[in-house]
Amino acid sequence: MGANVQKNKIDVKKIDRIIKGYDKSEESLLAILQDFQRAFQYVPEEGMKRLSRAMGVPESKIYAMGTFYKALSLKPRGKHTCKVCMGTACHLKGAGQILETIERELKVKRNSTTEDGLFTVESVNCVGACAMAPVVVVDESYAGHVRQSKVMDILDKYK
Ligand code: FES
User: Fold this and answer.
1) Within a 13 Å sphere around the CA of 32, how many CA atoms are in the beta-carbon half?
2) Are residues 64 and 84 in the same domain?
3) Is the pTM of this model over 0.85?
């Protein structure tokens, strides 16, 4: 259901409805981009185009905002984010193999999103839980001492 959302075409009416809800002023830009992010789980190109036209602001400026703010993503993201810590402590405890297992099982490359839109898989630097190394973080939930053979059990709970 939700997992297939990003495979569908972007709902242009939804984009326009969001834009219409705000004043035509530059101060509204960020709030509108945040609403796009919430509605589509990323900021679609079509959204930036329509916003540019509606507000009379160059697309390049909107694009720059989209790349500047970390909470905004210009690429479709998965319903869940799976971060594999590749910091030193985790690396020494086999994080590389864990990441490879996830890539193989989900048929996805690191720092991209699965075909079904369920997971965005990222390799990240130390997430501050070295005592629990190796660590995998799914959305806000930390899993520590993750074993390569068990990592898919963790992700299966989100399917
Ligand atoms: S290196 Fe992974 S939590 Fe610190």
Assistant:
1) 28
2) no
3) no
